[in-house]
Amino acid sequence: MSVRPISLSCFVLLVLALAGCADEESSTEVVVGLTTNMAVGFDFHELERTLKVDGVVAQSELLSYGAGSLLLPAELRVPTATEGATIELSLAAKRLDEDAPVVTREAKTRVLGGQSLLLPVSLDEACAGVSCAANATCVAGACVDPFLDPSSLAAYDPAWIQSAEDACKTASSGDPALVVGQGQMAFASLAEGEVVPIEQGPQGGHHVWLALRVTGLRQMGSKLKVGGFYPDLDYELPPFSSQVTLRKADDHCEIYGIRFQVDRGIAVGTVRGLPLDIDFTLTDPTGDAATARTQVVIAPL
Predict the structure, then answer these.
(1) At 167, is the secondary structure helix, strand, or coil?
(2) Are 282 and 214 a contacting pair, CB within 8 Å?
(3) Given CA atoms 48, 54, 55, 58 in this order, what sign does their dihedral have?
(4) CB-CB contact of 117 with 31 (8 Å)
(5) Model-level pTM?
(6) What is the distance between the alpha carbons of residues 182 and 170, in angstroms, rounded to a whole number?
(7) What are the backbone dihedrals phi and psi of residue 210, each rounded to the nearest 5 degrees, phi first?
(8) Which DSSP category does 8 fall into?
(9) I need a surface site. Which of 87, 197, 219, 221 has the fewest CB within 10 A?
């Protein structure tokens, strides 16, 4: 039995066809883009999330702010599904020790073969306490059909998360900016050159309580760096860094209870009554950042 050799041109066409099929198979997906304009860790602390494919539960989990598993905005990749499969997502945002959710949301769509789609799903502050009839869900304060036609969805682009709005960084929040204040339990104004009291901490160091008002930076996952310099002593305090979550407050966000040690590596008696320059840098997960500097005077004895 003889086998007829395949021509080079036919072989090339065959390889291209197989590659095209592979590309189509690999690009068939739905990615859920989860966002909220509510303050995670303050307005709600837990998120129950259930994902179904063709009516069968594919994922069911409880995300917790306290456990570090609840970070928004975020994306959820739907397990591999065949063309035409129905995707259903149910969300319930809750406060700690409360059974009734603050906000619920449902979203549905279908898989399109050979296309990678972004399914946007938001938890909206305007939907807090809103109850919709069966087969409806709350979006921007109104009850609507949870089904989104796949033809209306944008192609998935991993860059979507860079511009996603959240509780603190919105289209109207403007450029990143910081206003320096003071306070352990709330933000209070702090004048340039103001005399500030210091407290002794549990480990023996002395600190001042600082605060920030923030605009134009993400509510979650931002990195705060604080450093200090005593100009009269030509002494630089070692800086510290931490990841922070901002609290939503009217048209801005805040963080307070920033404990900054004023006698790291230096005797507290040496710095009393002296001016201290304090520098702040806050950088969010997208790389946007804001800086601020203020001078305070350490309270004398």
Answers:
(1) coil
(2) yes
(3) negative
(4) yes
(5) 0.81
(6) 25
(7) -115, 165
(8) H
(9) 197
> What is the predicted pLDDT for the residue at 298?
97
Chunked mean pLDDT (size 10), the chain, 301 residues: 37 34 60 95 96 95 94 90 92 94 97 94 95 95 97 95 90 92 97 96 91 96 97 97 93 94 96 98 96 97 81
Query: What is the per-residue pLDDT for 203?
Result: 80
Query: Please, what's the b/e burial string for 146-162 (b: 16 or more CB within 10 A of its CB; e: otherwise)?
Result: bebebeebeebeeebbe
Sign of torsion, CA 151 164 25 82?
Answer: negative
In three-state secondary structure terms, 234 is coil
| Res 7: pLDDT | 39
The pLDDT, as a whole number, for residue 26 is: 52
Cβ–Cβ < 8 Å for 290, 214? yes
Domains annotated for the chain, with CATH where assigned, are: 28-162 (2.60.40), 177-298 (2.60.40.2550)
Q: What angle do CA 48, 53, 56 make, to 5 degrees?
A: 80
What is the amino acid identity at position 12?
V
Q: Give residue for tokens 């002296």.
A: 274
Residue entry with tokens 């539960």: 57
Residue 174 buriedness (CB in 10 A; 0-12 / 13-18 / 19+): exposed
- In contact, 191 and 254? CB cutoff 8 Å: no
Return the ∠ at Cα 166 (arms to 147 and 122), rounded to 5°: 10
Q: Is the dihedral of CA 91, 97, 100, 103 positive or negative?
A: negative
The Cα 200–Cα 19 span in angstroms is 68
